[in-house]
Amino acid sequence: MAHEILTPAEMALVDRAAIEGGPLSGIDLMHNAGHAVAALILERFSGAAKVDVLCGPGNNGGDGYVVAGLLSDAGMNVALYAQGRPRVGSDAAIAARECPIQPQPLADYEPEAGSVIVDALFGAGLSKPLSHELCRIAEATSSRTVVAVDLPSGVSGETGVILGAAFRAAITVTFTRKKPGHLLLPGRDFCGEVVVADIGIGDRTVAAIGSACVENTPAAWIGHFPAPNINSYKYSRGHVGVFSGGPAATGAARLAAMGAARIGAGAVTLLSPSASTAINAAHLTSIILREADTLEEVLAFLEARRPHSLVYGPGLGAEADAGDFLLAMLAKAGGLPSLVLDADGLSTFAGRPELLFDALHRDGAPATVLSPHEGEFRRLFPDIAGESQISKLEKARAAAKRSGAVIIYKGPDTVIAAPSGYAAINGNGTPLLATAGSGDVLSGICAGLLAQGMPPFEAACAAVWAHADAALRFGPGLIAEDLPLALLPTIRELLPARQAERWNTVFGKPDAQTKG
Ligand SMILES: NC(=O)C1=CN([C@@H]2O[C@H](COP(=O)(O)OP(=O)(O)OC[C@H]3O[C@@H](n4cnc5c(N)ncnc54)[C@H](O)[C@@H]3O)[C@@H](O)[C@H]2O)[C@@H](O)CC1
Ligand SMILES: [K+]
């Protein structure tokens, strides 16, 4: 699976395994890495007046020496600035020896207009904040064209956190696979365009490391994406129940309902308190409306109509009674359908999250997806949210393990994690989604996919990706009401891709595995 994400530690293991397994040695890999960066610079910036290559003391610097030599051989005007000498016997020392350009001290470096800067100071080995001098250089280059080797120096490849300061790259060329820091904020913002170069390490060597994280792209879940078949009827295509709020807060549930319907659920029922029935009825056409004020009425609906998934939370109010009602439903209903908890359905458990987690860990508990944004995450997992040393990826994993649910930890860099630890980082997030009600639509999309039989982790990933893809295709001016209809071009590309995946399976590719 070429969409795995490797932490710097996993990448080091992959490099080591590749070198031990042969046929490429460490210096061969470094030559390949340098070639990839030099080729990109020649392709994109061949007209640059000058290229300034900044080399650090480790192997990231080693890549820089290779780049400098290749660009100079290609006729470009190259200057080399180095901080420290590579360790004797290292691959970087070989690369430095091979490089025909005499390095100047990095302390003398002043960026000039018209130069392209190659940041080969630190990559995977960044271990402490940049020094004052490096912070100054990073700041001085912030409006220049910077090509970062592997990672912009100062960005932690593991967490995406900035150590002191960081170079702001136009393009980052990384090797073999992306690292979390290329996708998690704020690191992602410093990377610019991320190019993944093949330096000769095979997919099998990467797979042997067993990374438990992927970039959230359709490749990660298309094999599970639901497609109706000729025998489908409305209930077999999936039935979603969405709980509506009171008369002043009914819109959120209708947004979720429309998200569920557009992603392909054959039937969606809005469960409405009687006080909201008139207003919901005035706004709904294809969505089924059912009055339900009491737990008995909800249980009767579940028994009679057997929905395949439920959305609980949007517009319900964060007071304790919303949580109490859910707990009562979880305690009473035998075989509750899968559940998406969002918004007030999460906030209602502030200060008492263990009541929810206990219920979700009980035998027979439904498969559940929790979709907190930053504030809701902090309400449910205050200690995990407060951990300053771990990444958003690790926080989502810890939350999934504790709650027993798939977590969609929302934000510009949404992370999806399963209780097993398997996780995905989303890369197509867009600020267009920062609009009221967009999260309600997401919960509906997720429930719509669950109702169609998609496993919870894959449904959560697909919902997050499709939601953002729809927003990107729609473009500026998007409001939450537009999102369900904006899903159409996305779905119309996903369905043929799903069909193609089916044919691949028929022709012998291994079947898609559930990662939840
Ligand atoms: N054979 C390999 O392992 C390959 C490695 N490659 C390159 O090697 C890089 C990793 O190399 P390294 O593990 O040597 O790590 P780096 O070159 O990223 O940095 C390690 C060195 O920097 C020092 N250092 C870290 N943070 C510092 C800071 N803030 N201020 C001052 N000094 C600091 C460390 O003490 C160490 O000497 C990758 O990012 C990639 O560019 C590629 O050439 C592909 C092959
Ligand atoms: K770098």
UniProtKB/TrEMBL annotation:
<feature type="binding site">
    <location>
        <position position="373"/>
    </location>
    <ligand>
        <name>(6S)-NADPHX</name>
    </ligand>
</feature>
<keyword id="KW-0630">Potassium</keyword>
<feature type="binding site">
    <location>
        <position position="252"/>
    </location>
    <ligand>
        <name>(6S)-NADPHX</name>
    </ligand>
</feature>
<keyword id="KW-0521">NADP</keyword>
<keyword id="KW-0067">ATP-binding</keyword>
<comment type="subunit">
    <text>Homotetramer.</text>
</comment>
<feature type="domain" description="YjeF N-terminal">
    <location>
        <begin position="11"/>
        <end position="207"/>
    </location>
</feature>
<feature type="binding site">
    <location>
        <position position="119"/>
    </location>
    <ligand>
        <name>K(+)</name>
    </ligand>
</feature>
<comment type="function">
    <text>Catalyzes the epimerization of the S- and R-forms of NAD(P)HX, a damaged form of NAD(P)H that is a result of enzymatic or heat-dependent hydration. This is a prerequisite for the S-specific NAD(P)H-hydrate dehydratase to allow the repair of both epimers of NAD(P)HX.</text>
</comment>
<feature type="binding site">
    <location>
        <position position="153"/>
    </location>
    <ligand>
        <name>K(+)</name>
    </ligand>
</feature>
<dbReference type="InterPro" id="IPR030677">
    <property type="entry name" value="Nnr"/>
</dbReference>
<dbReference type="GO" id="GO:0005524">
    <property type="term" value="F:ATP binding"/>
</dbReference>
<keyword id="KW-0547">Nucleotide-binding</keyword>
<dbReference type="InterPro" id="IPR036652">
    <property type="entry name" value="YjeF_N_dom_sf"/>
</dbReference>
<dbReference type="GO" id="GO:0110051">
    <property type="term" value="P:metabolite repair"/>
</dbReference>
<keyword id="KW-0511">Multifunctional enzyme</keyword>
<feature type="domain" description="YjeF C-terminal">
    <location>
        <begin position="217"/>
        <end position="494"/>
    </location>
</feature>
<feature type="binding site">
    <location>
        <position position="150"/>
    </location>
    <ligand>
        <name>(6S)-NADPHX</name>
    </ligand>
</feature>
<feature type="binding site">
    <location>
        <position position="60"/>
    </location>
    <ligand>
        <name>K(+)</name>
    </ligand>
</feature>
<feature type="binding site">
    <location>
        <begin position="123"/>
        <end position="129"/>
    </location>
    <ligand>
        <name>(6S)-NADPHX</name>
    </ligand>
</feature>
<protein>
    <recommendedName>
        <fullName>Bifunctional NAD(P)H-hydrate repair enzyme</fullName>
        <ecNumber>4.2.1.136</ecNumber>
        <ecNumber>5.1.99.6</ecNumber>
    </recommendedName>
</protein>
<dbReference type="InterPro" id="IPR029056">
    <property type="entry name" value="Ribokinase-like"/>
</dbReference>
<comment type="similarity">
    <text>In the N-terminal section; belongs to the NnrE/AIBP family.</text>
</comment>
<keyword id="KW-0456">Lyase</keyword>
<keyword id="KW-0520">NAD</keyword>
<dbReference type="Pfam" id="PF01256">
    <property type="entry name" value="Carb_kinase"/>
</dbReference>
<feature type="binding site">
    <location>
        <position position="440"/>
    </location>
    <ligand>
        <name>(6S)-NADPHX</name>
    </ligand>
</feature>
<feature type="binding site">
    <location>
        <begin position="410"/>
        <end position="414"/>
    </location>
    <ligand>
        <name>AMP</name>
    </ligand>
</feature>
<dbReference type="GO" id="GO:0046872">
    <property type="term" value="F:metal ion binding"/>
</dbReference>
<dbReference type="InterPro" id="IPR000631">
    <property type="entry name" value="CARKD"/>
</dbReference>
<dbReference type="GO" id="GO:0052855">
    <property type="term" value="F:ADP-dependent NAD(P)H-hydrate dehydratase activity"/>
</dbReference>
<feature type="binding site">
    <location>
        <position position="439"/>
    </location>
    <ligand>
        <name>AMP</name>
    </ligand>
</feature>
<keyword id="KW-0479">Metal-binding</keyword>
<keyword id="KW-0413">Isomerase</keyword>
<feature type="binding site">
    <location>
        <position position="315"/>
    </location>
    <ligand>
        <name>(6S)-NADPHX</name>
    </ligand>
</feature>
<dbReference type="GO" id="GO:0046496">
    <property type="term" value="P:nicotinamide nucleotide metabolic process"/>
</dbReference>
<dbReference type="Pfam" id="PF03853">
    <property type="entry name" value="YjeF_N"/>
</dbReference>
<comment type="function">
    <text>Catalyzes the dehydration of the S-form of NAD(P)HX at the expense of ADP, which is converted to AMP. Together with NAD(P)HX epimerase, which catalyzes the epimerization of the S- and R-forms, the enzyme allows the repair of both epimers of NAD(P)HX, a damaged form of NAD(P)H that is a result of enzymatic or heat-dependent hydration.</text>
</comment>
<feature type="binding site">
    <location>
        <begin position="59"/>
        <end position="63"/>
    </location>
    <ligand>
        <name>(6S)-NADPHX</name>
    </ligand>
</feature>
<dbReference type="GO" id="GO:0052856">
    <property type="term" value="F:NAD(P)HX epimerase activity"/>
</dbReference>
<comment type="similarity">
    <text>In the C-terminal section; belongs to the NnrD/CARKD family.</text>
</comment>
<dbReference type="InterPro" id="IPR004443">
    <property type="entry name" value="YjeF_N_dom"/>
</dbReference>
